[in-house]
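--- STAGE predict ---
source: upstream dedup step, 1 unique chain passed
mode: sequence only
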Amino acid sequence: MTGIETFRDLQAEATTWRRHLHENPELDYRLQNTATFVAEKLASFGINHIETGIAETGIVALIQGEGGEGPTIGLRADMDALPILEASGKPWSSKITGCMHACGHDGHTAMLLGAAKHLAAKRKFKGTVALIFQPAEEVELPSGALKMVQAGIMDRFDISQVYGMHIMPGMDIGKFGIRPGALMASQDDFDIVVKGTGGHAAEPHRTIDPVTIAAQIVLGLQSLVSRRTDPLESLVVSVTKLSAAQAYNIIPDEVVISGTVRAIGSALQDFAEQEIQAVAEGIARGFRAGVEFKYMRSVPATFNHPEKTKLAVAAAQNLVGTASVDDAVKVQMGAEDFSYMLQERPGAYIYLGNGSTAECHNPAFDFDDEALLYGIGWWVKLVETILPCETL
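--- STAGE serialize ---
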């Protein structure tokens, strides 16, 4: 078994990788340079089985242990950045205007690379480790995790269980958070097209004004959570986009309302879909307007399998001690496409503290490189926990 200081040298090397990736972010599936960088590093570690081009720019690499036969476990890191103009002020800030690693995926990739180097050098485990480097976590359907699952990676590489990790601003560095069952919400998205009759803004009486109708619909949707949902259940309905006329003196024919729904459980998703449509149609009908409604089930909720969560907790506790592992962390209403992998195979998803940094998706966010030490260590401990080999 290995202690945390075992990974100190790897942390220093992983810091250079992380900062290189941060300076050179790429979006969605267009990760050619990132994927090349990852594949070259994996090959330099002596890993011989590396398959690229999965779901366009995804990678799966296999490391066989020297402890004999055993299962294959999947370890996943996401690689893509976000279309955000960086404002961190760091020396390693993005060189690509309007694109930055604002969600820690540069750190996720560097941590899994660090663990890969250690595991490939030592191979003190039985069975096989499948390193999954995923594109396009930050996109709408089809997401990178879904496309990798659809590409058959679970069967193709005989993966029996799968694990993921994400940085958590506001949680102390060196601490972990996890829970069995629901960990993160599903993400559904909707568009409501309010169809009225446009005209001159000086003569609103000659129109059926979709702008005022849309405003009523937006306000009406607020009651779905505050007055129609059990307060002990988790549901979020947020309107995030409004599209109308582009001039001061035009009342448009239509207005598009767009938003997102976050829920824990399919029953709440069904409720939200039905009620959003009912509210929109009811209000529009009262003003003699029409509605077109589109509801997209984008990402399912993230559910940790209880037995695999225990393994993830044990690995973290062996690394940092019981007091630094919260095994009943609060459910988060953000969504994570790793849920598609957890639908295919049992496994778990864990949070790693990033200290008092800006929140994810904030232009000022940056990954704290001290966290690399703990992320690398947890991956290695997880492999040692699940695939123990006492003879090496």
